[in-house]
Amino acid sequence: MLNHSCVCADALDRCDRCDLLLDFPGLHLVAVSKGRAGLVLEVESCDPMTGCPGCGVIATGHGRVVTSVIDAPWAGRPVRIQWRKHRWICLEDVCEVATFVEQNPELCAPRGLLSTRAIRWAIGQLRREGATIQGLARQLGTTWNTLWSQVQPVLTMAANDPVRFENVQVLGVDEHIWHHRDPRRRGPKELTGMVDLTRGPHPTARLLDLVPGRSGKAYRDWLNERGDEFRQRVEIATLDPFQGYKNAIDDQLEDATCVLDAFHVVKLAGAAIDDVRRRVQQETLGHRGRKGEPLYGIRHVLRAGRERLTPRQQARLASAFAAHPDHVAVEVAYQCAQDLRDVFHQPTPARGRRLAQQLIAALPSCPIPEIARLGKTLRRWEAAFLAYFDTDGASNGGTEAVNGIIELGRRIARGFRNFEHYRLRMLLITGGLDASPHTQL
Q1: Any alpha helices (H) in 343-418, and if so which ranges?
Q2: Which of 38, 169, 388, 440 has the largest CB neighbor count within 10 A?
C-alpha cells in the first residue's frame, strides 16, 4: 500500500509496509534499532519545500536536526522515535525569521516529550483499564513526572471545555471523602460531586465536577458559576436528605423538580428499625445484643424485604417478636419500615404516591419515638419525597455508582496528595472528560 499522504517519488525506494506499521502520515521509517530503553525508530519526512512561517517565502534547506520522542509501547517494549527534522533558513532580508525547524502536530506537539499517539494511549489506559501513572511510565520507559507533565495539560483543556456541561437535564449531587489526612495540610476531606444523570446522550451517569467542601454553599457556588443557560436547562435535581444541598437547589434551580433519593429513604427506615431494636435490647436485658439472643439474631433479617424472606426466616422473626412483650415495638417498627419500602414497588406511580401520602400523615403520630422521628423527617421532605412518583422514578443511584468508581480509582492509585490531580483523574475515569478532541494536537 502506497503512502498517498507523502509527496515523495516512488523512485526513492521507500518500504510502504514499514510506513504502514509506523502509521505517521507524511513520515517514512528509515531504520529500526534496539536501544537500552527499547526500540528506536528513526523517521524522517521528505518534503521538498516549505514556506517560511514569517513571510511565506519558500525557504532553503539547512540540514537536519534529530529530536527524540517517547512513543507508545510496541510488543511490550518501550519505543523511542528519533525524528530527523528538516532545518530551514529564510533568505529574505526583511523577514524576522532566520531559521526554523519543521513541525508535525500529528506526531508530536512543539517541544513535546511524548508523541500524540503515546498521550492518547496513556489517557485510554487511565480511562478504561484502571492503570496508574507509575505503571504507564514504567511501560513507556520514562518517569512519573515526565508522563504526567504531558498528560495533565490535555486533561486540563478537556476539563475547561464548556461543551461537557451541555444538555444536562437531570443533575445529581453527593459527597465523599477523598483523603484521611490533616485538613490543615491537605485541605477539606469532604468533596461535593455533581453528576449528570440525563438519560439518552450518555449511556451511563458521568461526573461533571468536584469541589472542596460538603455544604450548601459549595453546591450553590458551583451552580452559580455554570451560568443561567445551564441552570435553566436542568429539569430534575436529585439529592440525599441533606438540607444544605436542598437550600442550594431552591436558590439556584428554582424551576427544577427536587427529588429525594429512594435508596436513602429506605435507608432511613432501616436505621429507625436498628435504633428501636437497640433501645428495646437495652431496656429488656440491660446490655448490647449478644449471640443467641432473639433480637440480635434477627438484626439482618429485619433489613430484608418481607417478600424475599424464606419460611425459616419468617419463623425466626415471629419467634423473636413473641419472645418478650416489649418486642412488639420492634415488630411495629418493622411493619412501618416495610410499608415505606413498599411505596417504591407499587404497580403504578399513582398507587405509590397515595401510599406515601398515607405514611407521611400517619408516621409522625406513632408512639414509637424512632418511627415518629422518621415520619417527621418524611413530612419535612414531603415535596421532594413525592416528586419521585412524578418524575418516572428519578433517583440518585447513578451518583452513588459514580462514587463507587471514584473509590476504586483512589484505591488503585493508593491515594492522592494533590487535589487538582485527583479531580482530573476522577473526571477522566468516570466519563466526565472527553479528551479525544484535545489529543489531536
Answers
A1: 349-362, 369-380, 382-386, 397-413
A2: 388
